[in-house]
Design a protein that fits this description.
This protein has twelve helices and 14 strands. It is an alpha/beta fold. The strands form three sheets. It has a seven-stranded antiparallel β-sheet with strand order 13-10-8-9-7-6-14, with helices on both faces. The chain has a five-stranded parallel β-sheet with strand order 3-2-1-4-5, sandwiched between helices. Strands 11-12 form a two-stranded antiparallel ribbon. The chain is elongated, with a radius of gyration of 25 Å. About 40% of the residues are buried.
Length: about 350
Amino acid sequence: MNETKRKAIALLSGGLDSRLAVKLMLDQGIEVEALNFSTVFCTCTAKGACKSEARAAAEAFGIPVKVLNATRDLMDAVRNPKHGYGRGLNPCLDCRINMFRKAKEYMEETGADFIITGEVWGERPMSQRPDAMRIIEEESGLSGLLLRPLSALKFETTIPEREGWVDRSRLMAMEGRSRKPQMQLATEIGVNDYPCPAGGCLLTEPQFAVRLKALLAESPDPPVAEIMALKLGRIFFSSEGRRIMIPRTEDEDKRLLALAQPGDLIIQGHNIMGPTAVVKSNGSPIGGATRQEAAALTARYGQARDDEEITVEWWLAADTSETGGASCSRPDRQTFTISPATGWRLSESLKRI
């Protein structure tokens, strides 16, 4: 082995595979620094967010970690994927290529020698097929410098192995989707407290893909807040084609209000428990028909849904100027009465995604 200490940049999600890859390198005396990529499309819960797991793993290993937000780059790929989509609106190959290009830039900035990942041969159907992995490596400019310790013996020898920086005989030949080999290795090399399999990418989910396509049809370059709002509530389209968002829980209610954009219409029952609807303006005035339909839907999903008529109030989310976000204070509040029964009919007749 070469006596010069070498440095690797690890793509660290915080999951078991990436933790094992890091540990295998540390056990060979490689200096490791981690990169974690986050986007609004991650399906991890807030408590177990990917970047939190990555930071926890980095702390356990005693290595530095840098978190990069890749949402904008991924949105570029969603709009124009060179390598197409998976089952949803997921441009997995383009996403990985961009991620590795960023990692290569960081490798060069920090004086590191190569990149490591926890990828396993054949584990993911789109981005971890052998042919796809080769494309990703070549188009990211990392040919020979991308080491996958868990499946290294399935690939041609990399530069770190040929140069003796890494002992190839101590690397793995894992393949397929079973996690048993990884769990066994974790026990053998002392990787503990790793998270259970969970999370993923919202872009792979058909319903979310439908919602995102509808948003992109309205606005090719939507604010990140608009994308985040797609995760929440029921979405109806008014007879005028406007998105009406009805939260399902108190938490969704608060989050939708927090994500409201200037000019969005906010509607809630007056002195009645129930959802606060958000009608998306997309930068243009909202018509009276949409306002009436949104009010009826708000009444339908409230706790006074069986009343003959209820009072609702509405106001426009205002620009907060400095932050560019919206304020949901109600200086221009207006009220009117509406029949919940109308909302029941509308919930069956209006388009919903």
